[in-house]
Amino acid sequence: MDEGAVEIRFNGVRYGFWQKADVRESVDDLCATVQLSVTLPGHGDSLGIDANTVIEVLIAGELVATTRLDSFSRRVGAQSHDLSLTGRSLGRELVDSQYSRTLSGLKLEEIARRLCDDFAVPLEVAAPTALVPDFSMQCESPANALINAARTANLFFYPTPDGGLKLAEPDAATPVATLIYGEHLLDYEVTDEYRLRFSEYCVKGYDYEGNSSHAGKAKDDGITFYRPMQMVADKHGKGRGGCARRTELERNRRLARAHRLELPLQGWRYQAAGDGGEVADWRVWAVNTQVRVVIPPEGIDDVFLIGDRSFRLDDRGGHVTRLTLMRRAAYAGGEK
Length: 336
Prior knowledge:
Blueprint: E1 6-10, E2 13-15, E3 20-26, E4 33-41, E5 55-59, E6 62-76, E7 80-89, H1 92-96, E8 99-107, H2 108-118, E9 123-125, E10 131-140, H3 142-152, E11 156-159, E12 165-168, E13 178-180, E14 189-192, E15 200-207, E16 212-219, E17 228-232, H4 243-258, E18 259-266, E19 269-273, E20 279-284, E21 290-295, E22 300-314, E23 318-326, H5 328-331
């Protein structure tokens, strides 16, 4: 299967000479990140790109990210020049900006839509949301407030190909593909990142209207020494649970992130099955979709959620997709 090239499209121009590429996105990040580079003869130029340029990134002819530049560098030698650019999707303004906003009596989706409208960031809402009685930011990152509110509701904010955000529940649909060690996978990596885990979690809050304090606690029985994490509850998500729920979700998400499975796959696409089981078109891998993984040496035959996805291109590995998989149960409220 010919995967084609990595291309960028801007101001009516298409540019597809990139020799190295890395296009990443995650269910835990509002922005997709893009790194591209190439070496060409001559002195070159800036390609006509500046800080205001909106750049579409295409993988195998399919739009995967819409970005603005974080940096662009041109290194010039006697006979050649190197071009390197890094960028993030349009949602980066919600991450980088320091902003003040007060809203009352709105659902989370309505709050997100107003903030996204302020920064001209598209928003797709694919999950019901509850009322957030009071939402207030003072000179802070909108991303932090949105992510905290979404996590309290056990929802994801993650980037979409048009540069915007999607607000959705952890995917529960049928796995999009089955990956079998020795057939689709030549190698894999199992990571236990113990630094992400704590022996106990505590979220503390205070209800100023009711003049009362609240706290929620949860333990990780796999950490037998004292290693606490104490957090102050934000008020953005209090309409969807309380301190106890926030504490359990924090523990469960950290368990999911701490024990993960990473799979390198040749190519950028998978062949999806149609609704009737027939073979459908080739599609690029996407976060917040499920895959079945079979690795007999590890005793693995289970369904996992794609948490991170990276498309890579270089002269050694060629076209590679790297998936980071996690147990969906951790995001659905249960332990892994």
